[in-house]
Design a protein that fits this description.
single chain, mainly alpha
Length: 481
């Protein structure tokens, strides 16, 4: 701090002529402001507070924005959202880009998207790198505007060009999934590495996921774990979630459910629904030295369900069906499965297929049963593929079609052995379950029908590799027991 003071006095007021503050400040006030910013960055809020307060009182835009941020986050002061909003409005009214950006973020947090877009755009058009990233994200999320990946990537590029870690992270995601730009894993990795170098912990986690999934690099679970650990060490829940997943699945490390629990409990305590669901799955399985405890499983599933986690809804539906850890209720299981199926959760689709096929909690309805089995079958669940084959063979709820029946039978058998089972959790979970033997269909098909079924089955398998190119990995650590 002393070094900063000496340097500023030596340079004189001209050194701070480019300060974004719009209110003229004396050289001494400029030095105080610089010190307050430094102290704020070092989380020495008690020393920064009186300086920001004094300068904000004379209308200094930067100090208004920084003081507003302190009240918004409750940093060194009691949180006061109304005062924070008032200070950011005063700063933004002077055209200070940081004030505009923070005001836009505040409006976005309360889902006032028109005002958020207005202020973020003003700041982004001034070249504020944070605002460029935030404004671009509005087009990814479709918040107040039509989702437009071309627009989002344009703003991310501007932000990343200034070395902004948020812009680098967002543009890295755009290249990873081909959103608004041509998919390019090498570019994605380059950008995430730049962001990670600046301390962007989620980029560290993404780099680990790219090594885990072999995206643009050779699959290497050891390197993936190193990046997950770096992310976790810096407090990012993504790193904890992902490291726990590797221990749970034994990828690059020996299976260790206790270590998985140790990793997942950290984000779970932060309210992370993925971790909550996964801990529930551990207690339901009762493996690796962990006790089988349906009550604890239900407790963690319910926490995740309260946040709308579709996999947890499917998991809790199973417990409610069997009365494990919760009161048995087909009606509740039915409702949970319906909610999860709305999110395309394949196991919930399978549950609904079973519910309608056997008349549990809903009238027997083979048509709806076939509908949900077909959806789960397309998602790669061999049990649903076999069940759909049975309905097609017997004309239950669908038009009888022996060729389609044999096609799905062939797929269900191959999925249990295919590499998709090794690389995709949703299939690996079911890979050990028995599939009904429907090979008898083969006996009464003509050679042409057999060939057609085989061709269709091969076509489906070719179109459904382990992970879909251009889409976020389905691996996402969501555990269905």
């Amino acid at each position: 701090m002393k070094t900063l003071l000496v340097a500023l006095f030596a340079l004189g007021g001209a050194a701070w002529g480019a300060t974004p503050s719009l209110t003229p400040l004396s050289p001494e006030q400029q030095i105080e402001q610089a010190l307050a910013v430094q102290e704020f960055d070092q989380q020495d809020f008690s020393d920064a507070l009186p300086i920001f307060a004094a300068l904000a009182a004379i209308g200094d835009a930067r100090s208004e924005a920084d003081l507003g941020q302190m009240y918004y986050c409750g940093c060194g002061v009691r949180q006061d959202l109304k005062r924070a909003l008032r200070l950011q409005k005063l700063s933004a009214a002077q055209g200070y880009s940081k004030g505009e950006n923070r005001l836009g973020d505040m409006y976005r947090d309360v889902k006032d998207y028109p005002d958020a877009l207005h202020w973020l755009k003003l700041a982004a058009e001034q070249g504020d790198a944070d605002a460029e990233a935030d404004f671009g994200w509005m087009f990814v999320a479709g918040d107040g505007v039509k989702r437009d990946y071309a627009q989002s990537s344009r703003w991310f590029k501007l932000s990343a060009a200034q070395g902004n870690e948020s812009g680098e992270y967002d543009l890295g995601n755009a290249y990873q999934y081909g959103r608004g730009v041509k998919q390019d894993f090498a570019q994605a990795m380059r950008l995430h590495l730049l962001a990670a170098t600046q301390g962007e912990t989620t980029s560290m986690c993404v780099i680990g996921q790219m090594y885990e999934d072999g995206q643009g690099v050779a699959r290497d679970y050891g390197v993936a774990m190193q990046w997950f650990q770096r992310s976790a060490d810096d407090g990012d829940d993504c790193g904890y979630d992902s490291a726990g997943f590797l221990y749970d699945q034994g990828l690059g490390v020996r299976v260790d459910y206790v270590r998985a629990l140790e990793y997942w409990i950290v984000p779970a305590r932060h309210g992370d629904d993925t971790a909550e669901n996964n801990i529930g799955a551990l207690y339901h399985r009762g493996v690796g030295g962990l006790p089988l405890d349906y009550s604890k499983a239900a407790y963690w599933f319910q926490l995740a369900v309260a946040k709308g986690n579709a996999t947890a809804e499917a998991n809790l539906a199973v417990l409610a069906t069997d009365g494990l850890g919760v009161r048995q209720s087909y009606a509740r299981a039915f409702k949970l499965a319906q909610l999860a199926a709305l999110e395309d959760e394949p196991h919930a689709e399978e549950q609904l297929g079973n519910i309608y096929r056997f008349g549990r909690a809903a009238p027997l309805n083979y048509t709806l049963s076939a509908k949900y089995y077909a959806e789960a079958a397309e998602h790669g669940l061999p049990q649903s593929q076999a069940a759909l084959s049975y309905l097609l063979e017997n004309g239950l709820g669908v038009k009888r079609d022996e060729v389609a029946a044999y096609k799905w039978y062939l797929i269900s058998v191959v999925v249990k052995q295919h590499p998709i089972t090794v690389d995709d959790v949703r299939c690996r979970v079911y890979s050990q379950l028995p599939v009904s033997d429907l090979a008898s269909i083969f006996d009464y098909l003509t050679p042409a029908q057999k060939a057609a079924a085989q061709t269709q089955a091969n076509g489906w398998l070719a179109a459904h590799p382990a992970s879909g190119a251009g889409e976020p990995p389905t691996r996402s650590q969501q555990q269905f027991f």
